[in-house]
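A reminder from the course coordinator: this example appears on the midterm review sheet, so study it carefully.

Given structure:
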């Protein structure tokens, strides 16, 4: 009886993961079908409209000055450009932003510095607060770790000549892609999402989301869609779906790249992934019923559902780690099982992930993509290692566990020589790395068992589970060990004239 229950649970998890794999294949199909259908502006503005650049900041001592300098270099008429520094900081970041704002005003920029003391709604609250005094018809949002190119507004603004366009999203670039193994794998994760998923959904008429930064909104779109709301941790995803449900259209521009800094520490990366995962499930609970009650075409509803429930895959993956046991072989082996179960599940649950990221790297790096995909085993292993962290986020969202908006630490790191480990912005410690370490040991036993019983085909897959949990747990713990001192008290800098 126990073996039967285990088999049912085990196969149910595999079927669930296979369903997500089928969805990945569908995204690849939509991307390949529509990748040459690049959007073009409906017209050109005879006179450039007013744009407000909103910069939500909270304790960003290492990157605030870099952000304001890059915004000051935007190629856009100063008389039509307003810069809103939404600084909720509680440390000397306030001194840096105040000095930079004063310098920009002296140079003729319209700069509004807003400091809230209550931080109600966190980032969403800051954006909503700034909207009340934003004079621009269009709103460009940039997080503190982004460095917008000078042509950002010029390359995007004319798409708003179509009055039905409510938001334009640019593709993220990576300032520190080559910093470490972690940043290189993160870049591959984001490339898959930002290139394949966003392009496929936007050009096929499906719903897709604003990524929280490096994009422009029509102010009236935000207001008519209910404004920024902070009942989820992903205010960007929430507003995106509400706006598209209201009939607004979005555009994704993969050829317009806005570089950003990737988290260089494992705990910061896990904190970011936890927030994104939890927020997406919160948004799913909030909006999925409205989507199915709407009069949208069935293909749009189905794809939106696949998008919003995608992070439940981490819960399935974590369940798989628990259900796996070397002495439990599942259904009896043989050619029937191989044809009906093993091969279909392998092609959908495993191969689909590899094909997805290979497709993205080949599209972005046509000359060097084969070198990039050598990191594919590391990408798969990192995804496995994150499964407990993100599964916890899914469960917290499902059971309405409330938590604050945990910002991702940014250290202004663009080169390998720059230190970061003693920076002041450290995520909170947790016991999760201990559980991850024990599962690394657990899968070490798996590997030994497979070798001892000559199950050599399973060894590469088991090694990915072992390495994934070991890498994530080790990198999480090592950050808290004593490090060499580094001067953190950098004085505020003034932007050059």
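Designed residues:
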């Amino acid at each position: 009886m126990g073996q039967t229950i285990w088999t049912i649970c085990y196969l149910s998890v595999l079927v669930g993961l296979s369903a997500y794999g089928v969805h990945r294949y569908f995204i690849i199909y939509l991307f390949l079908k529509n990748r040459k259908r690049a959007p073009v502006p409906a017209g050109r503005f005879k006179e450039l409209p007013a744009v407000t650049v909103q910069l939500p900041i909270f304790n960003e001592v290492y990157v605030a000055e870099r952000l304001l300098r890059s915004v000051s270099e935007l190629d856009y008429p100063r008389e039509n450009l307003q810069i809103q520094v939404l600084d909720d900081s509680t440390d000397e970041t306030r001194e840096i932003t105040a000095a930079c704002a004063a310098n920009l005003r002296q140079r003729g920029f319209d700069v509004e510095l807003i400091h809230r003391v209550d931080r109600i709604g966190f980032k969403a609250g800051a954006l909503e607060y700034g909207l009340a005094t934003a004079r621009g018809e269009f709103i460009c949002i940039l997080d503190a770790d982004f460095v917008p190119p000078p042509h950002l507004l010029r390359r995007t603004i004319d798409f708003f000549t179509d009055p039905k366009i409510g938001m334009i999203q640019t593709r993220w670039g990576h300032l520190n892609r080559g910093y470490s193994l972690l940043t290189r794998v993160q870049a591959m994760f984001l490339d898959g999402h930002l290139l394949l998923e966003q392009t496929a959904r936007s050009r096929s008429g499906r719903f897709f989301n604003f990524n929280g930064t490096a994009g422009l909104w029509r102010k009236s779109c935000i207001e008519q869609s209910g404004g920024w709301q902070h009942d989820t941790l992903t205010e960007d995803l929430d507003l995106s779906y509400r706006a598209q449900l209201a009939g607004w259209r979005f555009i994704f521009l993969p050829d317009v790249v806005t570089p950003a800094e990737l988290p260089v520490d494992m705990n910061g990366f896990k904190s970011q992934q936890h927030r994104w995962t939890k927020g997406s499930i919160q948004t799913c609970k909030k909006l999925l019923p409205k989507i199915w009650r709407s009069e949208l075409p069935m293909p749009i509803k189905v794809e939106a559902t696949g998008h919003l429930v995608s992070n439940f895959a981490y819960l399935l993956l974590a369940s798989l780690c628990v259900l796996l046991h070397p002495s439990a072989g599942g259904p009896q082996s043989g050619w029937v099982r191989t044809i009906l179960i093993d091969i279909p599940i392998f092609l959908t649950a495993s191969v689909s992930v590899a094909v997805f990221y290979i497709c993205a790297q080949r599209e972005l790096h046509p000359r060097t993509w084969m070198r990039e995909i050598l990191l594919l085993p590391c990408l798969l292993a990192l995804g496995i290692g994150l499964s407990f962290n993100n599964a916890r986020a899914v469960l917290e969202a499902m059971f309405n566990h409330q938590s604050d908006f945990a910002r991702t630490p940014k250290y202004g790191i663009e080169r390998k020589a720059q230190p970061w480990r003693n920076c002041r912005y450290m995520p909170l410690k947790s016991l999760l790395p201990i559980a991850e370490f024990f599962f690394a040991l657990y899968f070490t036993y798996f590997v030994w068992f497979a070798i001892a019983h000559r199950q050599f085909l399973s060894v590469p897959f088991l090694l990915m589970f072992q390495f994934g949990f070991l890498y994530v747990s080790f990198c999480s713990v090592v950050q808290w060990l004593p490090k060499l001192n580094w001067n953190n008290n950098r004085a505020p800098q003034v932007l050059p004239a």
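Residues 328-332, 484-497 have pLDDT under 50 and may be disordered. Strands lie at 51-57, 81-87, 110-114, 138-141, 165-174, 215-218, 249-260.
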